[in-house]
């Protein structure tokens, strides 16, 4: 009778008048929201680009390769090399730890745990998504750091030959590795919560079909649940990544920031975009603010690239997703 | 723990493929777990490892490997893989529980001592911060209003955008919106704050207020709402939509009555995640709301306080035992507050959602 | 299904409870803390008698976090005798404060630094017919805090301290340190130095001291961003203090108040005076009293004598300013601003922050500020 797929919003056939008007209003409302969003975002992007441009024209160093950050000096020199490196490395560590564990927890809640454990645990995870980052920061500084000493020296002792885990300077474990772990803990609840909702939506019939064919529970999950949930998992991970990339206060409290770029992730030091913005903003002059905006713009671009890649993966995998095309 | 049994009539569907296969008894996983913990602790103690974290990691590793090997011997590879996956999921669960519980317990321990009626019902006006006394009422009220306003702006906007993207969006506009929503997830909170500051407070000349803070918070909230809602709407089976259309229900009613209610659980989770994220924001609030030590119940005029800003000030500026106590107390209240919101939202979502399914 | 319905009603009940409790909470808030503020406010009544309240209203100020605790004490005392006036100070950093001031959003700014010429130019847009000036208001000192077991009376001098913070001296039992501390049991351990990761006036004052007294050991210009080599960093004086407390064989720097509240030991400084100088408010006051006004045209920016060799003069001092328009302050806040600043520079107010780790402004400077505040228009 009417169009059978969301792909064709305007049905050719005649429908009762009121519903057509209703449809039109609703669609325009939805489209209006989208357009409004677009305008806001474009304005922010434009604003950032404008301010960054002012800072970049005053820069006496190479913005991409300079290590220092002194935009308010008489001869401003600032660059994002250390910040970009630190941001990517810490977010990478966080994702490597958090995504598998979060999928595990989401599966645990949706498919493994007895209902009596699953419900309260799901609430606990939601609760942890609610913990403000300043609390994570304080907990990290006062509780996590003292407990990281053992693990750091152990990693250094047995995995020091990998270069990555080689600790070249003594010091507290206020390094990128610890930041990565803290970020992993912070984004765990977000990824878990969204993945869990996705896993819950897996059609029962898919699961039962797999089991009826004699699959073990793991085989059922691998063939029915995970492929269905893949786009959702990726989206959830992107939300988590967004928080990991943009996390400010917790990183600022935990990391021993400096302007040294080093692959030894157990050495105290490094920096991230958001942390640098938080630390430098309070005392920044005009050019300093604009320079910080420019670094914010780079964060934008990084987020965009990662999200774009994720969208590509989702699009390529669509045929397996089992959800709607 | 796991529900593998030798009884084929078991109510659970996960029954082994062959009834004659060798099966491990039910107590095997707990036994393996207990064994590996004992051995793990033994190794840890023997090697003189300081951190109990490592003891736990060694035990977990032993549990995974041991369980797999035993099962592979007795039950064959497929079953062993299944048991291995089960173990991994359990280990992930425990791995996550440790820091999460530690965080919760730590906050409660530090904060519970200071939270009382007086703390909840008084502001900091007239209190010298380096001394005792005072409360968080002004901050709690400010957070409530700022987050409430931000949600009022962001949730409908985000929801409608997601509906547009999933149900209507084709072509360039939809692509552009998707693109910018992706970019938006990477907006550092300070940038959102500066944008509102330049636009709302400087260009348009409004003064500091809770509302200008909400505007920045809404910017931070929208992408989370859109992204999670979008994902949930996509999961609504097309069959439901088609059935609705087949009955002659117009599209907008189908969306409002069928699609959204079906996805309401996930949407609620998404909105609550977003609320949780903005409730903890410090930087843009400090820039736009200014902060105050007195009660200002009008979010549209004059400086207000917010809980995260309060926590930050008590920690970094006051920085003594009284400040720490108030900071942890406020953190505890903040978490409880978001959790309360979460429960309410879930209650509503369950009440409104269609019956059946899972 | 039954199970689920049970769960649902339970969730609803909990939700309703939370809603009700939060609503009941909303009804009973109070600004009245007179019963609870028992400690800390003594002395306020004495000071209160002298306060001239001016016009009632709200006064916004923003800036330096270093002076936030001082302003907190003052606004509380001021508010207790002038109930019609609310002073609201937001400690978001000096740079942010100056920007907010130049945007016309606050009546005064607190700053760890004297205004730069560019900032003064920008201020002319807000101060109709006038410009922004610096008024020295809150004085303090930076102490070198350390945590070394068995060492209680550490003495350092300019060159040695500079080398320690620049990683040129890396062991506690280095001959240079040993020479200054005869008889002390210095451990054979690496020095863990901590500096601020954020930009700050504290760093600026410390590096100014290094630049003046280290005899070339400190090569970088004084700056609010840390320029030394090596070491670890932490966010804010609170973060640095927390690290010194946690980490053995460490040394860092923080304002005196942080050293006091965290029970950290402060190094004495060998300045060339007869005795090494202890980090106390009284000793810092001696240095500040001898500083000269370097500002011109009504501006009271100070030039501090970091290289002082006088007896009992602690060299690493800091002075933070209030920034206001000399002419052209906003009409609706001018009266309140003047009465508040008149109060803060009064002897009673300066004395009341003495036990918070600050240094009451010496009369030599204070009198000039009092005169300047009186002429604000």
From TrEMBL, chain A:
It is found in: Cell membrane. The chain crosses the membrane at residues 25-50, 77-109, 121-145, 176-195, 244-266, 291-314. PROSITE patterns: ABC_TM1. GO terms for cellular component: plasma membrane. One of its GO terms (biological process) is phosphate ion transport. It comes from the Bacteria. Keywords: Cell membrane, Membrane, Phosphate transport, Transmembrane, Transmembrane helix, Transport. InterPro entries: MetI-like (IPR000515), MetI-like_sf (IPR035906), Phosphate_PstC (IPR011864), Phosphate_Transport_Permease (IPR051124). GO terms for molecular function: phosphate transmembrane transporter activity. SUPFAM superfamilies: MetI-like. It holds the Pfam family BPD_transp_1. It is a multi-pass membrane protein. Belongs to the binding-protein-dependent transport system permease family. CysTW subfamily. Part of the binding-protein-dependent transport system for phosphate; probably responsible for the translocation of the substrate across the membrane. NCBIfam families: phosphate_pstC. PANTHER family: PHOSPHATE TRANSPORT SYSTEM PERMEASE PROTEIN PST, PHOSPHATE TRANSPORT SYSTEM PERMEASE PROTEIN PSTC. This is Phosphate transport system permease protein. It comes from Kitasatospora aureofaciens (Streptomyces aureofaciens).
Automatic annotation (TrEMBL), chain B:
The keyword Transmembrane helix applies. It is a multi-pass membrane protein. Keywords: Cell membrane, Membrane, Phosphate transport, Transmembrane, Transmembrane helix, Transport. The chain crosses the membrane at residues 27-47, 53-72, 84-106, 147-166, 178-200, 206-226, 258-278, 325-345. GO terms for biological process: phosphate ion transmembrane transport. It is found in: Cell membrane. Pfam families: BPD_transp_1. Residues 140-345 form the ABC transmembrane type-1 domain. One of its GO terms (cellular component) is plasma membrane. One of its GO terms (molecular function) is phosphate transmembrane transporter activity. InterPro entries: MetI-like, MetI-like_sf, Phosphate_PstA, Phosphate_transprt_permease. It comes from the Bacteria. Its main location: membrane. Part of the binding-protein-dependent transport system for phosphate; probably responsible for the translocation of the substrate across the membrane. Belongs to the binding-protein-dependent transport system permease family. CysTW subfamily. This is Phosphate transport system permease protein PstA. The lineage of its organism: Bacteria, Bacillati, Actinomycetota, Actinomycetes, Kitasatosporales.
TrEMBL record, chain C:
Residues 215-235 are annotated as: Disordered. One of its GO terms (molecular function) is phosphate ion binding. One of its GO terms (cellular component) is ATP-binding cassette (ABC) transporter complex. It comes from the Bacteria. Residues 56-347 form the PBP domain. Residues 1-26 form the signal peptide. PROSITE patterns: PROKAR_LIPOPROTEIN (PS51257). Keywords: Phosphate transport, Signal, Transport. Belongs to the PstS family. This is Phosphate-binding protein. It comes from Kitasatospora aureofaciens (Streptomyces aureofaciens). The lineage of its organism: Bacteria, Bacillati, Actinomycetota, Actinomycetes, Kitasatosporales.
């Amino acid at each position: 009778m009417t169009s059978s797929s969301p792909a064709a919003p305007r049905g050719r056939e005649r429908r009762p008048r009121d519903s057509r008007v209703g449809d039109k209003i609703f669609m325009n409302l939805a489209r209006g929201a989208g357009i409004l969003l677009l305008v806001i975002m474009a304005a922010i992007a434009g604003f950032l680009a404008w301010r960054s441009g002012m800072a970049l024209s005053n820069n006496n160093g190479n913005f991409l390769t300079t290590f220092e950050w002194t935009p308010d000096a008489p001869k401003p020199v600032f660059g994002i090399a250390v910040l970009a490196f630190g941001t990517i490395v810490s977010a990478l560590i966080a994702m490597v730890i958090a995504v598998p564990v979060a999928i595990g927890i989401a599966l645990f809640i949706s498919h493994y745990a007895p209902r009596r454990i699953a419900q309260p645990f799901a609430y606990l995870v939601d609760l942890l998504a609610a913990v403000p980052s300043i609390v994570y920061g304080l907990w990290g500084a006062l509780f996590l750091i003292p407990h990281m000493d053992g693990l750091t020296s152990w990693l250094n002792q047995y995995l020091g030959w990998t270069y990555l885990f080689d600790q070249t300077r003594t010091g507290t474990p206020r390094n990128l590795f610890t930041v990565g772990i803290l970020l992993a803990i912070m984004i765990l609840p977000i990824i878990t919560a969204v993945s869990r909702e996705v896993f819950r939506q897996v059609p029962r019939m898919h699961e039962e079909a797999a089991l009826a064919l004699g699959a073990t529970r793991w085989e059922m999950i691998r063939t029915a649940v995970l492929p269905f949930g893949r786009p959702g998992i990726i989206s959830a991970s992107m939300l988590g990544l967004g928080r990991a990339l943009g996390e400010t206060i917790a990183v600022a409290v935990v990391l021993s920031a400096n302007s040294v770029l080093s692959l030894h992730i157990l050495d105290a030091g490094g920096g991230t975009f958001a942390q640098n913005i938080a630390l430098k903003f309070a005392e920044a002059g005009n050019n300093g603010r604009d320079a910080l905006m420019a670094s914010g713009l780079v964060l934008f671009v990084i987020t965009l690239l990662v999200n774009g890649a994720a969208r590509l993966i989702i699009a390529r995998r669509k045929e397996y997703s089992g959800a709607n095309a | 723990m796991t529900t593998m049994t030798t009884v084929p009539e078991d109510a659970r569907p996960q029954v082994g493929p062959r009834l004659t296969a060798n099966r491990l008894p039910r107590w095997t996983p707990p036994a393996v777990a207990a064994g590996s913990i004992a051995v793990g602790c033994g190794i840890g103690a023997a090697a003189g490892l300081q951190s109990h974290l490592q003891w736990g990691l060694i035990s977990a590793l032993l549990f995974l490997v041991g369980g797999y090997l035993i099962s592979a011997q007795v039950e064959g590879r497929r079953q062993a893989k299944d048991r291995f996956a089960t173990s991994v999921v359990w280990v992930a669960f425990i791995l996550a529980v440790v820091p999460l519980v530690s965080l919760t317990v730590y906050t409660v321990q530090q904060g519970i001592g200071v939270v009382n009626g007086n703390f909840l019902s008084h502001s900091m006006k007239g209190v010298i911060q380096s001394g005792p006394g005072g409360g968080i009422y002004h901050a709690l009220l400010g957070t409530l209003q700022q987050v409430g306003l931000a949600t009022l702006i962001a949730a409908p906007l985000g929801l409608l955008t997601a509906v547009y993207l999933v149900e209507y969006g084709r072509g360039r506009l939809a692509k552009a919106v998707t693109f910018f929503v992706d970019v938006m997830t990477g907006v550092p909170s300070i940038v959102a704050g500066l944008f509102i500051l330049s636009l709302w407070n400087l260009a348009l000349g409004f003064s500091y207020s809770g509302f200008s803070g909400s505007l920045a918070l809404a910017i931070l909230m929208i992408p989370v709402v859109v992204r999670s809602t979008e994902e949930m709407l996509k999961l609504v089976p097309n069959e439901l939509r088609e059935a609705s259309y087949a009955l002659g229900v117009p599209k907008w009613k189908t969306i409002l009555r069928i699609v959204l209610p079906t996805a309401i659980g996930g949407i609620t989770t998404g909105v609550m995640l977003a609320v949780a994220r903005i409730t903890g924001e410090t930087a843009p609030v400090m820039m736009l709301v200014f902060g105050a030590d007195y009660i200002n119940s009008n979010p549209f005029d004059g400086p207000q306080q917010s809980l995260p800003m309060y926590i930050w000030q008590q920690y970094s500026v006051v920085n003594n035992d009284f400040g720490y106590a108030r900071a942890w107390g406020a953190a505890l209240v903040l978490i409880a507050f978001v959790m309360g919101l979460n429960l309410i939202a879930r209650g509503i979502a369950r009440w409104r959602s269609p019956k059946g399914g899972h | 299904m039954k199970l689920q319905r049970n769960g649902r009603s339970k969730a609803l009940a909990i939700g309703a409870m939370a809603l009700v409790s939060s609503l009941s909470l909303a009804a009973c808030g109070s600004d009245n803390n007179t019963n609870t503020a028992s400690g800390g406010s003594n002395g306020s009544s004495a000071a209160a008698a002298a306060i001239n309240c001016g016009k009632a209203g709200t006064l916004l100020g923003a800036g330096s976090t270093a002076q936030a605790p001082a302003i907190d004490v003052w606004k509380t005392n001021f508010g207790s005798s002038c109930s019609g006036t609310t002073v609201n100070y937001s400690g978001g950093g000096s740079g942010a404060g100056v920007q907010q001031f130049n945007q016309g959003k606050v009546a005064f700014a607190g700053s760890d630094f004297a205004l730069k010429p560019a900032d003064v130019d920008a201020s002319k847009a807000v101060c109709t017919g006038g410009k922004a000036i610096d008024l020295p208001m809150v004085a303090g000192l930076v102490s070198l805090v350390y945590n070394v077991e068995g060492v209680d009376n550490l003495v350092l001098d300019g060159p040695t301290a500079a080398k320690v913070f620049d990683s040129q001296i890396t062991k506690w039992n280095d001959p240079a340190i040993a020479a200054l501390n005869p008889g002390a049991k210095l451990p054979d351990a690496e020095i863990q130095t901590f500096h601020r990761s954020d930009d700050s006036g504290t760093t600026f004052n410390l590096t100014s001291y290094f630049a003046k007294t280290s005899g070339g050991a400190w090569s970088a210009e004084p700056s609010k961003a840390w320029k030394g080599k090596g070491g670890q960093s932490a966010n804010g004086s609170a973060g640095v203090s927390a690290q010194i407390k946690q980490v053995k064989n460490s040394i860092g720097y923080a304002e005196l108040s942080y050293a006091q509240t965290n029970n950290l030991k402060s190094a004495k400084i060998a300045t060339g005076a007869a005795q090494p100088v202890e980090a106390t408010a009284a000793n810092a006051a001696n240095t500040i009293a001898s500083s000269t006004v370097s500002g011109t045209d009504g501006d009271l920016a100070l030039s501090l004598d970091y290289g002082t060799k006088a007896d009992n003069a602690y060299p690493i001092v800091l002075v933070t300013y209030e920034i206001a328009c000399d002419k052209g302050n906003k009409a609706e806040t001018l009266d309140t601003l003047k009465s508040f600043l008149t109060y803060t520079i009064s002897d009673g107010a300066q004395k009341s922050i003495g036990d918070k780790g600050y240094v009451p402004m010496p009369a030599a400077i204070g009198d000039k500020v009092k005169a300047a505040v009186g002429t604000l228009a």
